[in-house]
Amino acid sequence: MKKSSRVQIGCEDFRRSLAVSRRGFVKAGVLGMAGLALPELLRREAIAAASGKSPSRQKSVIILWMRGGPSQIDTWDMKPNAPSEYRGEFKPISTKVPGIQICEHLPMSAKIMDKWSIIRSLHHTDAGHSAGDQICFTGYPPGQNVDQNYYPSIGSIVAKQLQHENPKLPAYVMIPKMVPGTGPAYLGQQAIPFETFVDPAQPGPFSLPNFEPPTGVSLDRLDDRQKLLSGFDKLRRDVDQSGQLESMDRFQSQAWDIVSGKAARAAFDLDAEPQAVRERYGFGTPFSSRTATGGGAPAWSQRVLLARRLVEAGVRLVTVDLRWWDTHSDNFYSLKEGFLPRFDRAYSALIEDLHQRGLLETTMVVAWGEFGRSPRISNDGGRDHWPGVFSAAVAGGGIQGGRVVGESDDKGGLPKDNAKSPQDVLATMYRHLNVDTSVSYLDRQGRPIPVLPHGEPVQELFG
Domains of the chain by range and CATH? Predict the structure, then answer.
């Protein structure tokens, strides 16, 4: 048997986490033999029609998940006065906001510094990839199996609590797939994310498998079955006194709207974007480091554009997987040639695009990873896992741009002033979305568990 030549990217912990099976929104096409699969997702939207709000007025969050852990020192918290074995090869550049400097390889982000801010004092205590995922998506420490959600993610809480105001769209979307920490835990199947599975950067027309009928089943045939189901539902409503069957009929109708291609199909139709807009975000090609532990990335810029389309249509929370910033070796080559240019282009395009469309005030964008990187450069020219201090970029959602919250020490290893936690970032997103964090939900043992164990919104971001 011919040995595979595929490069194993990232550390052993990271590769193990990638191998975890992910349960999708639907498993085999859109429909099962017994009926439509989408009503399960839409069950939480039973009262949506009463809200009267248009999707454009809804508040949304986009999480740009820089999985693997980006280096704080080589992005948004540079240390030009530290010894060379700490500060590294990159130089700081000035931004549009006097007094704020970031990495020289983020020039487009620097030009719009007035529209986003930096938190430089984040920290927690777990240096594992999946453990960090759990902390940053749920606010709780990981359980015995770090790849399994013991507590619901922010997206699942949003799906559970907000009663999404656009019944023709999922409330919570993952592009392209779930990662550890993004599941519903004890909130159940109605709080799982919609996964695109397909990467928008793939050549050819962008088509989601969740919107395609099962093999051998045409949309006309599905339409006939929908009419038949509607007839059965009318008979059942005649004997239903609780109103539950009427709601189920509405779920069935909403599911049919998605399957047959209306609001959701339009929102996910990335090919409808003008070519100039797509080029603004960038296409690029997948990047692999020169070493096995130097990180690597798919061409994820078009994922960011898809996220903008979704929040514009009314999706409440979109998480975009921008992996694999796991630069244990060859850190500076990987960042300079791979990660930073593509992130700079996509991030700046997203912020400017939201601003020009009047969506930045209602859309909060949070770019961060599960931890930072070690301040001291290793013998392999890399930086290792470092939860001791790391940074996040925050834009939109009513925050003031051009601010720096917190400070790390002289070598970028620990918070020096105004330390913040991942729970504080989650609380900030929850406040923007008007999610009630005082609510508790019963876990599988029947114990009431609050949305967050602790954490306060980062007030310094706001006016």
Answer: 12-461 (3.40.720)
